[in-house]
Amino acid sequence: MNIQTLTQYFLEYGAFFIFLIVLLEYMNLPGFPAGVIMPLAGIWAAKGEISFPMVILISVGAGLTGSWILYFLGRLGGQKLIGFYFKKFPKQQPLIEEKMEMLREKGGIGVFVSKLLPMVRTIISIPAGMVRMDFVKYTVSSVLGIFLWNTVFVGAGYFFGEAAMQVLA
Prior knowledge:
- By secondary structure, the protein is mainly α.
- The chain has helices at 3-13, 15-26, 34-46, 52-88, 93-106, 108-114, 120-123, 125-130, 135-168.
- The chain has one domain.
- Helix 3 (34-46) packs across helix 9 and helix 5 crosses helix 6.
């Protein structure tokens, strides 16, 4: 699928398309990376098809929804999942346990920083649920990180418009 096809989906499905793609990305499911979708949404906003604040609101809402799903997956089934993982990859156990201990110690700051790191930003939700991080602290830290990350990418599309389109093509 190319940029023109994605643009056509924006025109057909509008804000729902942005929400769905960002939601899937924050759930760590395959699809289009939000790093491609969010600049396109910014370009769409620059053309006046949707407001910039609305794109940010939709993308943060989708990111938070996906993060909550993984948080509760970790909270409700994380111990079984990690037990299975350690059986398959026993050498990973010390590293993962170290990262979970860091999460227990750093809490919200650890989640916030993790939301700004590629790949880690989507996966951090599962261990946060596993260590039973306070849900309100988790949510606030997630919203702040998601907001910052998404604003950078949507803003790039909005402010660099057609130049960003040529880089992505």
